[in-house]
Amino acid sequence: MQKDTPVILITNDDGITAPGIRALVDAARGLGRVVVVAPDSPQSGMGHAITIGQPLRLDKVEMFDGIESWQCSGTPADCVKLARDKILHVQPDICLSGINHGANHSINVIYSGTMSAAMEAAIEGIPSIGFSSLDYGFNVDFTVAAQVARQLAIKMLSQKMPDHILLNVNIPIVTPETFKGLKICRQAYAKWEEQFDHRKDPRGKDYYWMVGRFINMDTGTGTDVEALKEGYASVVPVTIDFTDRKAKEWLEKEWQF
Amino acid sequence: MQKDTPVILITNDDGITAPGIRALVDAARGLGRVVVVAPDSPQSGMGHAITIGQPLRLDKVEMFDGIESWQCSGTPADCVKLARDKILHVQPDICLSGINHGANHSINVIYSGTMSAAMEAAIEGIPSIGFSSLDYGFNVDFTVAAQVARQLAIKMLSQKMPDHILLNVNIPIVTPETFKGLKICRQAYAKWEEQFDHRKDPRGKDYYWMVGRFINMDTGTGTDVEALKEGYASVVPVTIDFTDRKAKEWLEKEWQF
Q1: Alpha helices, DSSP H only, in B45-94?
Q2: Preferred mutation among B110, B111, B242, B255 to probe A, highest tally of A CBs within 10 A
Q3: What interface predicted TM-score (ipTM) does this complex get?
């Protein structure tokens, strides 16, 4: 393999058998040395969890024709850490995560295993993108999402990117004909309004299922939620510096220690 | 109870039996109606995980003399969600998380269950603070940390705070005599350099333990890492809007879709 062949690390949070990661692998074919390291089971809602209390398993698998693939017992963030240290032994040129079966726009970025894998890569200085389809189904039509993934991977590979660049890309439920294109957005202010479905188990003990309703509380423009509603794929650059600069200014003025 | 008695929700990620949460409960005594909802087992490294794939248990316990307390089978973020919907039925005035046994400064904010509970509260609009001691031990001397927690809780309760305010507070290993006080900081750019301790199980199969070394790569001033080194407790306001504004400007200039 030529020395300038880019190394492309692919992972996800729905697990290595999910149709979404297969669509992403196919989208990346031919762009470089593609290596898949993904969880061996679904990890949705894992946020940026890492596994420190138990050991990790890592096994080579045959999943994607001609593509080196590994499954890992850990979280998406674990997969990125293990991939770099135990499999690649080099810094990948880009990391692609997804395609997630379900939306990760706005506040979902914090709950999302898909985005946590991409964020882990960005912390390491690997330009990375998380892809999510708004379609939660198993039999999602990933045609548009895969086109978007390939387009952005090529763009990221062909250009010097800013340090720690990390993109949260969500794809609406559209056909190639109704798809409006890509839009650079900011994260909408939204939240989940939780309700807990209260039940009794066969022994009469209480338990709860988390259910929730997504509420967009953002009345401004330029948000990912807005773009998706209009039929665009949203592209939100995500920071790994969580300092709230406005709140910091306020505290420096108002709080004397 | 008077209507203007503040409601103070306390949680953590080391679990309800950890000495750190007991120190925090004692620090908050007398400041309002204190209610504890915390994981029934340690949840360190859980990041912002939420539990959607299995049901949650929630049980009332007697742990802290005269303080209403519940243990939950879920993650720190689950605890905050459940507390609001199933226990308090009102918006708490503040949420305090910790005191964590171990540092959560700089990039640790993303891996930290302590901070994820506080972040979940902030998303809900509850002013919140996560407290962490740099001492990883079980028998930590929480004297200074508890003083800091009480001081900041009183400050937050006595003042109209900015929307979605969320503070990441870390306390160095100091005595009341050597403690320098509080300092408002920004998050240092740092990362964990992972290594995986490779072993074979009794059946000859490979497994890996994650081990890591924390590296501060930030050469600037005003960071939490710097303040802690000098003997200050660091106070970093944390955002729930992860849009990278600088990267967004760059993309808008460089990427035409």
Answers
A1: 76-82
A2: B242
A3: 0.91
